[in-house]
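Async update (no meeting this week)

Hi team, since we skipped the sync, here's where things stand on the single-chain job. The sequence we agreed to prioritize is pasted below, unchanged from the tracker. I ran it this morning and attached the output directly underneath so nobody has to dig for it. Comments welcome in thread, and please keep replies under the output.
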Amino acid sequence: MNGKIEETVKAVLNRIVLVLLAFIIGGIVIFFIGENPLNVYYILFKKSFFTTTGFLNTLHYAGPMILTGLAIAITFKANIYNMGVEGSLLSGGFIAGILGAQLSCLPSVPLKIICLIAAALLGMGYAWIAAVLKIKFRANEMVVTLMLNYALAKVLEYLTTSVFRDLNAGYVSTKIVSNQAVFLRIFGRSRLTVFFFVILVILGFFYILMKKSKQGYVITAMGNNFEFAEATGMNVGKNIMILMLLSGALGGLAGGGWMLEDQYRYTLSFSGSPGLGWDGMLIALLGGHDPVGIFIAAVFYAGLKTGADSINMYTNVPKEIVALIQSMIVLFLAVQFFQKYKIPLFKKRAKEA
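Output:
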């Protein structure tokens, strides 16, 4: 037990230190711009976390990243490198947008359910391709999923600019989804919708799955030693398929929900830059591939994004400073400061035992 607690302490300390280092470097840049770093960070966090509307908007933007973070974590924790979460998200968002616009005759609740189920299924179908290639042909899933992302983006670009293009829009996009398909905002001027609470239910389910279930044990065993897990009789191929499909479903749901609660039509910039699927990779790493850690990391990361516009508005510092801080966090994630050293926190108690 002491070993587990020590590892947890190391992981938490490592993440706190790397975030602080990223903010210190950002503060140095802000100082040379001619602004007070403490004042800039005060505005950043106040507008993101310490006003009601700002905090609710932060939760809204955290939602899809919670799902993509889980989608990354459930495979990475088992040593399966699914880089195709962005593709699952795009495909889920696209199909939800098309169905949400075309099936306007349906009542609100059934229409939303159909759109989200279709998004999850298409996300699963996209992940299934890479899973089959991995299981049947031993193809490297990292290379396959990376290449599939670019292929899918081009296919969706073609469909958006031709077959499903809204000719009445002033830019390339599909038709806007019907009012029945939209998740309405529920708290005043904030952008938060009911879909965030759906995400919390999904998060709770995956917490139980990863922490309390037999499948969670399988994920851990595969992550610790892939070959040993196979040698002990685990059907590794079957479990790879299950995990890839779950990952694809989460990515698809993230895209479908983002479509129905925020974007309302598919555009060539639907997922943003670098993309919500890629953001999920940082969230998973920062959260230690743990559901609770992923939730905290997603809210923190979304807060940076929410506060970026406030920095631009109230100071002379460009909002790109937040992108710099995020980049530093990614860089420092590769350095495990406290993982390399023993923390004598529990040594005395261990000797007494």
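Quick observations from my side:
Residues 345-353 have pLDDT under 50 and may be disordered.
Residues 2-33 form the longest helix (32 residues).
Reply here if anything looks off.
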